[in-house]
Amino acid sequence: MPLNAPRPLPRSAAEHGAEPSATTETAPRQATLAGAVTRSGRGLHTNRFATVRVVPAEAGTGIVFRRRTPDGAVATVPALWQYQVTQPLCTALQAPEGALVRTVEHLLAALSAFGIDNAVVEIDAEELPIFDGSALPWCAAIREAGRAVLDAPRRRIRVRRLVEVRDGRRALSIAPADALVVEAELALAHLGAMRWEGRIGPDTFEGALAPARSFGRLKWALPLKLYAYATGRPILRGARFGTTAAIVGGRVVGGMRGPAEPVRHRVLDLVGDLSLAGHPILGHVRAAHTGHVLNHALVAKLMRDPSAWDLV
């Protein structure tokens, strides 16, 4: 499917209150799923099989992960920036008692873009499935479940002034705006400069961003996989041609799914990472060569400065 081909919202989802864009909302309300959905697959880093069940939740719950650990206990961790911990090449959350949930960014991005404010994500392993490296399977799951509007107001984070973080040529900023808008650029050796910009909503996300796959250079991925198996660390153990877009020289093995697929995937990840603020963000984001580390730094810097935003 072309990256820039949006899909119409099916009637089943529209019946549960899905709005085509923020401009049509007169009195926004919180939303959850209209039913539970289950998906299974192997993780990108652990290569372990996991079953994920995403279930509706009442207003004010937010997005919460519940992981069943090997000893039978259940660890709960909210999808909030305070619980984010550094793990290689993914977004990870850690419960107060220590249980980890990793590679949550694709599901969080899809939930955020579709306006799902409240859900409980039950998982029986450490890592969410990577599927084909894109967020399309999560989009399909959300559409299958439908969206249910709740009788509670939806609060949003309105950015009041510029906040930015930098690391060399990498830069990420957010400024005031009436919706979540992203401008992103990325330059990769032999592939050149790539750009994407747009307003984040369900159609734009599913059509332009969700199909874009996790990517990496084969010459770096193979040594990392060998290192992971030699040291016992969970890094890229599940990476293969079916789960990532492998770059060799100036091409993607099997071809790109559309123009500038790598930068679109970086925006996909960014949408998921921004959702860790806990409420939808109204802001204009400019991203240059960003990744998870910089995304998390921006969210933390924004949220630690109450003078930079309002909850409206």
Automatic annotation (TrEMBL):
Ligand binding (Zn(2+)): H106, H265, D269
Signal peptide: none
GO terms (BP aspect): lipid A biosynthetic process
Key words of the record: Acyltransferase, Hydrolase, Lipid A biosynthesis, Lipid biosynthesis, Lipid metabolism, Metal-binding, Transferase, Zinc
Family annotation (Gene3D superfamilies): lpxc deacetylase, domain 1, lpxc deacetylase, domain 2
Alphabetized InterPro entries for the sequence: Ribosomal_Su5_D2-typ_SF (IPR020568), UDP-acyl_GlcNac_deAcase (IPR004463), UDP-acyl_GlcNac_deAcase_C (IPR011334), UDP-acyl_N-AcGlcN_deAcase_N (IPR015870)
Gene Ontology molecular-function annotations: acyltransferase activity; metal ion binding; UDP-3-O-acyl-N-acetylglucosamine deacetylase activity
Catalytic activities: a UDP-3-O-[(3R)-3-hydroxyacyl]-N-acetyl-alpha-D-glucosamine + H2O = a UDP-3-O-[(3R)-3-hydroxyacyl]-alpha-D-glucosamine + acetate
EC primary class: hydrolase
Pfam families the UniProt entry points to: LpxC
Active site per database record: H292 (proton donor)
Transmembrane segments: none
Pathway: Glycolipid biosynthesis; lipid IV(A) biosynthesis; lipid IV(A) from (3R)-3-hydroxytetradecanoyl-[acyl-carrier-protein] and UDP-N-acetyl-alpha-D-glucosamine: step 2/6
UniProt EC number: 3.5.1.108
Region described as Disordered: 1-38
Cofactor(s) of this protein: Zn(2+)
GO cellular component terms listed in the entry, alphabetical order: membrane
UniProt family annotation: Belongs to the LpxC family.
Job description of the protein: Catalyzes the hydrolysis of UDP-3-O-myristoyl-N-acetylglucosamine to form UDP-3-O-myristoylglucosamine and acetate, the committed step in lipid A biosynthesis.
Protein name in the entry: UDP-3-O-acyl-N-acetylglucosamine deacetylase
Taxonomic source organism: Methylobacterium durans
Gene (name only): lpxC
